[in-house]
Amino acid sequence: MELDDVEAVAVAYALYKRHQKAKKQKSYNRRYWVHPINLKRPQEGQFQVNFMSLRAHPEEFTKYYRMSIPTFDELISLVRPYLTRQVTNMRSPISEEERLTITLRYLATGTHFSSLHFEFLAGVSTIAMIVRETCEVLWEVLQPKEMAEPTTDDWKDVAKGFFEKTQFPNTVGAVDGKHNIRLECPKNSGSLYYNYKHFFSLILMAICDSNYCFRVIDVGSYGKESDCNVFKTSAFGKKLYTNRTNFPENQCLPNDNLGVPQPFVLVADEAFALHKNLLRPFPGRSLNDQRRIFNYRLSRAHQYIECSFGIMSKKWRVFQTSMLVEPETAVKITKACCVLHNFVRRRDGFNTEDTQSSMQSITERRGVGNSPTNAKDVREYFVQYVNDTNHALDWQTNVICH
Question: DDE Tnp4 domain: from which residue to which, for each copy (predicted)?
Answer without folding.
Answer: 180-342
